[in-house]
Amino acid sequence: MKKERKAKDFKRKAVYPGGPKAMVAFIQSQLQYPEAAQEAKIQGSVHVQVSINHLGAVIQAKVISGIGYGCDEEALRVSKLLKFEASKNRGFKSVFMQTMGFHFRSKPQTAPQTTISYEYTKEQKPPSTDLGSDSDSDSTSYHYTVEW
What we know:
The protein is of the alpha+beta class. The protein has helices spanning about 20-30, 35-40, 70-80; strands spanning about 45-50, 60-65, 95-105, 115-120, 140-145. The protein has a three-stranded antiparallel β-sheet with strand order 2-1-3, covered by helices on one side.
């Protein structure tokens, strides 16, 4: 006969479906770097405290430490999109607090591609006045493109 294990904690925390890695993947897919922060070259982390109700919905979010330039508002927007698993706490309807960090970093820009074009055209010969000559004008051109 197998004994049931008792839960370690009286209250169980809200858990994101799929675990922390799934939550990070969701945040990265939804988070957009604000244009104002890009123009000002702002990088850093915004820490948001969220309140999660017994159904797993984020009911409140507030910025604990922010960096401005629209990053705080973006972190609040994404944090409100999160849906956690409903907690089973023996019938108690409790609210959980969780602090999350949203990281805003500019993507490394690749070096601009440089192209050099070089074109060589052979000089055309003036038309020949000889009646016996078959070639009217001889033209040869070469075109080189170097990219790095």
